[in-house]
Specification:
The protein is α/β, with parallel strands linked by helices. It has helices at 7-19, 30-37, 56-64, 67-70, 83-89, 102-112, and strands spanning 2-3, 26-27, 45-48, 74-78, 94-97. The protein is built from six helices and five strands; from the N terminus they run βαβαβααβαβα.
């Protein structure tokens, strides 16, 4: 699942991952992401921090309060130069700095998701 308010980033990551054979859910903000999680359990959440409606910190806090969702690894997506420290402070599986390198994105997704058939 990709939760990012930037349409271009969401669309690009979705296209790349679908081309590689992964199923992808996407949401434009944390609230939309929470709604979509009611219908499924993704293997990984790629999460932007700075979003309207519900930001990444609020989203992460919300999923941590649900035992079914708390087990899903979260990787932060951000252009923030201090992203590593911020990522460690909220207990995530990792981070990807924007602009995201294709190989790094695929390696990260494959680390947490089964290879597509």
């Amino acid at each position: 699942m990709i939760v990012d308010d930037d349409n271009d980033i969401r669309d690009a990551i979705t296209q790349i991952l679908e081309y590689e054979g992964f199923s992808v859910l996407s949401a434009a903000n944390g609230q939309e992401g929470i709604e979509k999680l009611k219908n499924g359990n993704p293997a990984l959440i790629l999460l932007d921090l700075m979003m309207p409606v519900m930001n990444g910190w609020q989203f992460k806090s919300k999923i941590e309060s649900d035992p079914r969702l708390a087990q899903i690894p979260v990787v932060i997506l951000s252009a923030d130069g201090n992203i590593q420290q911020k990522s460690e402070n909220i207990g995530v599986a990792g981070f990807l700095k924007k602009p995201i390198q294709l190989e790094t994105l695929l390696d990260t997704v494959k680390k947490y998701c089964d290879e597509p058939k």
